[in-house]
Amino acid sequence: MAFVTANWNPLGDAFYRKIELYEMGWNLKDGLRDCLVAAAPYGGPIALLKAHNRCSPSARPQLEIFSSSGLPLASFPWKSGVVKQLGWTVSDDLLCVQEDGTVLVYDLLGGFKRHFSMGNEVSQSQVLETKIFHSPYGTGVAILTGALRFTLATNIDDIKLRRLPEVPGLQGAPSCWAVLTQDRQSKVLVANGSHLFVLDNTACTPVTPPGLSPQASSIVHMCVSFSYKYLALLTDSGHVWMGTSNLKEKLSEVDTKIKAPPKQMAWCRRPKSQQPSAVVMWDGLLLVVGECKETIQYHLDDDSILVPELDGVRIISGTHHELLQEVPGACEEIFKIASMAPGALLLEAHKEYEKESQKADEYLREIKEQSLLSEAVRQCVEAAGHEHEPETQKTLLRAASFGKCFLSNFPPEQFVSMCRDLRVLNAVRDYTVGIPLSHTQFKQMTIQVLIDRLVYRKLYPLAIEVCRYLKTPEYQGVSRVLKYWACYKVCVCVYLFTPLLYSNILYFVLFLQLLFNKVALNLSKLTPYCMPSCMLVYTVVMYLKNELNRGDFFMMLRNQPVALSLYKQFCKHQEQDTLKDLFNQDDDHEELGNFYVKASYKEQRLEARIAHLQSAVDEYYKAKNEFSAKTTEDEMRLLRFQRKLEEEKGEQLVGFSLHDTMTTLLSVGLHKHAEQLYKDFRVPDKRFWWLRLKALAEKEDWEELEKFSKSKKSPIGYLPFVEVCIKHHNKYEARKYVSKVTLEQKVKAHLAVGDVEGAAEAAIERRNESEIGTVLSRCSATTDHLLVERLNRAKATVAKK
Amino acid sequence: MAHTEWRDAPELPDFSLLKRLARDQLIFLLEQLPGKKDLFIDADLMSPLDRIANVTILKQHEVDKLYKVELKPIVSSSDQLCFLIRPRIQTVKWISDLVNADKVAGRFRRYKIIFTPQKFYACETVLEEQGVYGDVTTDEWNFYILPLDDDILSLELPEFFRDNFLEGDQRWVTTAGSALHLLQSVYGSFSKVYGIGRCAKMVYESWRELMEEGEQRTRQPEFAKVFLVDRDVDFVTPLCSQVVYEGLVDDLFRIKCGTVELGPDVTSSDKSIKVMLNSQDKVFSEIRNEHFSNVFGFLSQKAKNLQTAYDKRRGMDIQQMKAFVSDELKGLKQEHRLLSLHIGASESMMKKKTKQDFQELLKTEHSLLEGFEIRECITYIEEHINRQVSMIDSLRLLCLLSITENGLLSKDYRSLKAQYLQSYGIKHLLTFANLRQLGLLEEQQAGETLTVMESKVGKLVNDKTVGKLTDAFSSLAKKSNFRALSKRLALVPKSGEEYDLRVPRDMAYVFSGAYIPLSCKLIEQVLERDGWTGLEEVTRMLNGQEFAVTGGSSSSEARNKTDAQRIVLVMFLGGCTFSEISALRFLGKERGCRFVVVTTAITNSARLLEALLDNHA
User: Fold this and answer.
1) Cα separation of A685 and A701, whole Å?
2) A603-659 pLDDT, tens per residue?
3) Is any Cβ of chain B less than 8 angstroms from the Cβ of A535?
4) What is the pTM of this model?
5) Residue ranges of domains in chain B, CATH in brackets
6) Chain B partners of A542 at a C-beta cutoff of 8 Å?
7) A20 pairs with which residues across the strands?
8) Do residue A597 and residue B414 have CB atoms under 8 angstroms apart?
9) Which chain B residues have a beta carbon less than 8 Å from that of A687?
10) ipTM score of the complex?
């Protein structure tokens, strides 16, 4: 107990203490040298990217993630571009800002989540410096580009890029800058030499810190407190200026007497602090500056980084992890040497009581006389909360409990909840968990967030224990953890088990989930893992189909393309109407139209068919697909026409295509009706001629064919006439049309009727080499040798030209 | 045999082992239901099953009667019913109805469903929903791969294409992954895997997961490399008319599961004959990869040789005659029979294919591939539609036109579509919707390009949604880029040059020298470069999704020229054509390696397009 004050250092009216949190479990060869390091506040994880400076494109540095105690959480080779900055979001996601302004997001176990860009401008002019900051609106990213402009996103979950105004007179990179959150806005504070500017959305305002010592010609470093309320500036003359961040008030100014630029500077201040103080770090030296002229100096053996916290600064080196903070009031009162504060007396009284000494009574009396016993108990309980060592905590709590015995109406809540909190805190501070939260931080962060963090680390049993122990309501506590656990397990199942097995596990998981709450499983969390194992998605979909009401179910499907397509497939076979509802929900009128067209083909009754088609027409119009709508309307007209004719003439027609209908009509001699269709349905002339031609040839009505050929100039030429006659073995009729065939097709026509000589004639006349060749191939060498000779000659002359 | 000519060609592993494995498992499953039973088999499993276990084997394991699944009420007196089916909801529903009908009739039977190659959860759900889950037992027959020939392995899953590419239903992905895993566990691991396409990537992932689960066996690998390719990477090739003998036989007579049924007009007898087409058929194996214009000449030469062989017996003495009859005659007879069949086939082929209209069809296809005289082509297609020449062929030409031209002009698209609908009915509105979805037949988008739209939308919504949208857009923007690809990869040889089909100089011979199949060209390029480097432009035009992974268990010292290192496994997801197989065989011959083709099914233009018609369901 006597040693509690051993690590205390006085500074002005207050004391500062440095507590060792952990001896680091990692084994780093070169410590933190040449590493890009980012440690999340609230005792969060630490990310390390080794050797990021070596820019050779082939080198693949290792990105490693550790817990605060240095236990490895993840490690993978970095394959993307050059990383400028690492940082953590409020929900323990790792942000890696690349040179080109792309930000990659990983979870704390190294799983890639997504990426986003900081805009074209950033990617063009490259990232010079980056700061990742937290505000009430989430985690933000601020970038200084190569073009010396700032781009800022206040919340990475809802990216709105803001480009801040130009800083006047900025030639090179500013000497230092920081992000502030003020008046519900994120601003950038930039120092260019001795000039200081505040950049907000609209303007760049020059500002002057009140009372900044005149020796300074340049501000070399600045830092903003955890709460954004205070600002510290370090000048090239070695002065630390501290004030409010709105630059209205100066709190103190201290000369550090060191002019070298520092490596890092951070506020070391806790709520209700007695004095403003900042920590400045140089190589091998750490300085705490407060209000007075003196400073506290610590020697550093190793490259370290500072992690500002709500109530102090954590110092992480290659081997150790420490917390530097102002000694909290209650602790100071109790442990200060020769303190006569009621808490100190109570502690002393309890000590004597343990020794079974009557002095206990004397001390007690002394407190009681001043009627400060309840104050003493309160002090002890509070101090216990600020102590890190469980033994000290116990001593203080025992003292408090002892004091309580002599109070009749003392409310127990404070004591009880402190005991509970401490038990939880000690559990999460454990080396294996590695979350060194202080009680102040814990209260600020809330139990909800702590449980989330345990879940991110997949410490499900611990999270559940914590919930149970703190009696968190089910829906916020145990069941929520179980849901996450189930999700995770399902993902693991996909990896571990063959398809056969995991449907059973899934039942179990779903059962659990439904037992606790009816919130839909977040399938999107699953899909990246089980793209290939659709069976799993299917299982979940089929299960949820029965468990959720239809509206919720459809809403869920909407965001799950894989699940949706699987379900559609199922509906196609099982539940046609559901399919319709699905399309309806999505306002997919095109698909609905197609759906009705399909349905119409299944109907036997004409009325029903037409009704379906009418629905299709409506949907197509809604989908602005006029083509399909018109075509479908035509089909309805055609169906009505077909039925009318069926009734009148007894020809089987309904369901035929337009072409087939016309063919049938022509073949049974209903020319007039065919003609009517030709006009009504805008049938192209060519098609109609082909139809007539074919029909007449089928009937071998050569006379009519001839009449037809003369009725008008044929839009399809006359070669088809020749061919159709030949097809029906009527060479005589075919010859009639040969003369009418156009020059280009003459050779073909002659050959079709078997008139090689005619063909030869035509080919030679046209001086067409390939046609001559075709004719030659049809000549037999024995019978037509004269012709062959002629053709060969012609070919030779054509070839010459 | 054809491949004996390939000097220095590596020996292929013995794939008949796969058949034995499948047979053993099937027998094991049948034994699980002791006693006499009736077996109902899915129609499309009949032929594959026949290759694994014929009726005799089935009878030996107490299969009483065999029925084809017809989704109609059954007549069976057996007390035990066994169903061997693909995992399809419809079939399972039918079985459930049977079981329920039996229940109503108070009849007690035992039912067993054997799903092949695996069961799907949805099928079990149906059993559950119909209330028969407890009445049937279910099992899986892991019959993933049917070796159709020495170098062709088929999953026999024609529905893979439609399910995966059109419906977005990825359940077969694991099947394909398992098939690769099976090959790996039987024949050893692969040293390198390449692939292109979304599905290919997923299949690889699924396979990798299986690898990680299973124990690692260090076996001498029997394949060097694996190449996975999605059918939608190259739609042009399967849409072209096939002119290589085997492909042409498939186009004309439809080869089913390695067997073709030749009708009376070919066999010049009164009945049709079923012929197995594979390398066991000596005549066929020599002509299968030839351009059909060469086949007839080859066959007549062959006939002459045969005659001389027969003629030898003249002037033989008794002893010689005896030897001749016992040693050679049987072989000659066999050859004779085959020869007459193939002559018959090629005769009817020549009859159909040398006709004017086929020549014109080919000419049009070649013009489209070359991007030459497009107006004339459109006129030709229009006439083709107007004359109702062939529903499928018209569609095929339309698709070719669209892909090669990066979509049709609005005016042409509407007019051709309207004409097509007039010819074949408006149910094809659905067909057109499907074709558009797959990017096979599209209308060119006038006005703003997608990237402009994308950035506009991007400003309105947050980053996460933009990601999703970009995905959506890129799938929308499935531009074929055929012209640019063809230029880049020199797919279409310069016109005007004479191409001697007798002595092919490149893979273009499978399309009369007019076009090198894109899929095969990609394979060639990637193998040559040992990866995708240098092909960035090409992959970008193919919508990326390429990958190259070095296998885990490849030992670098074994990298030298063992036979196995020269065998390349190519998996086509969504089917491959015989023309592609011929092209790969040619490539293998050129490069001194051999290709083994694994495909989800053998396809051709007709099968591909029929799968996209929507009037059946």
Assistant:
1) 21
2) 888 888 899 999 999 999 988 888 889 989 988 999 988 888 888 887 788 888 888
3) yes
4) 0.64
5) 15-143 (3.40.50.2060), 144-234+496-616 (3.40.50.1910), 245-354 (3.90.830.10), 357-405+407-477 (1.25.40.850)
6) 121-122, 125
7) A322
8) no
9) 386, 419, 422
10) 0.81
